[in-house]
Each structure stands twice: as C-alpha cells, then as structure tokens.
Amino acid sequence: MVIGRSSKIVTLPEGYGPILRRLREERGVSVEVLAEQIQLPVAVLVAIESGASGMILSEETLRDIALILGSKYGKPRERLGTIVRRLRLGQKLSLAELSEQTGISVMQISRIEQLKSSPTEGSIRRIAAALGVPVAVLFGEEPFLSVIGRVEMLLSQVQSKLIDARQELRREDIE
Length: 175
Hints:
With 175 residues, the protein is mostly helical. It has 3 domains: 9-76, 434 Repressor (Amino-terminal Domain); 80-141, Orthogonal Bundle (434 Repressor (Amino-terminal Domain)); 143-175.
C-alpha cells in the first residue's frame, strides 16, 4: 500500500524511521503536528518512526516531511527559517515590513525564523515572493551563495559600466 498523495513512490531505506523521529524531535515538532501537516494518520507515522520495514511513501509525502523538518530525504541542510532571516536582513526589511508584504503575522514570521514553527506551503510561497526569490532558494535547493553571487556579479557589472562612463566623460571634458 502506497501512503501519500502522488503516484511516484519511494520505499523508505532501512533505518529511516528512527532518523525521522530524531530529526522531528530535534526540530521540536510533535508527531501529531507532523502527521496533520503531511496528512497521515498518527499511527502510520508512529509505525514509520518505529522502523517498520517495507514502508512505502509517495514522493510528495516524503518531500512534505523534508520541507517541514528542513531536511531532504534525511540529509541535513540549511534551515528555511535561517535563510528567510538572512534574506530579510540582507534586504533591510523589518519583520513588520515582511509581515505587511506577506499577510503573515510578525509573530509567525519570527517563529519561522527562530525555527520554532513550520510554515505552510502557502506561507512559504508568499515569503519567497515578498523576498523576490524562487521557493527553491528558501530550501537551499538553489545554493544561497549562488543567489548572492549573481547579485554581486550584477552589481560589479553596473559599477564597471559607471566607471567606464565616468572615464568617457572625463575624456570628453579634456578634449
């Protein structure tokens, strides 16, 4: 039996359940909250975490777990809240300004940044839109540094063109 909402399936690797439990506990997410967010019965999630063999999840459900816990298929990665905070501060936005742009309360954004709350898919999309980045950036799927690198490259190109223009104006003044 496939557990989840899509046709693509993934057989959970041996040892995944205890890793999932440890990760969930480290993140401070209760089994009830995780089960509700991934739309699985609590008993099924408990069975997965206890290491029941042969468990098969839909790829979509596995991704949902990864998004909620800030991990991709059990591999640690930079947390969404940390990335949101870096981007917000990098754009010199206050919590109140981001709240206004997203329609998400200041308290909720703060809890997301402090890794105390897992945002809904809709909230993630609104935050990404307000910050002007693809959703993938918030999950570290597109390296955060590559985004910064592209911005720095564009700034460098603009600066170079300004220097060239300034030098051209000086040449014209001399002639």
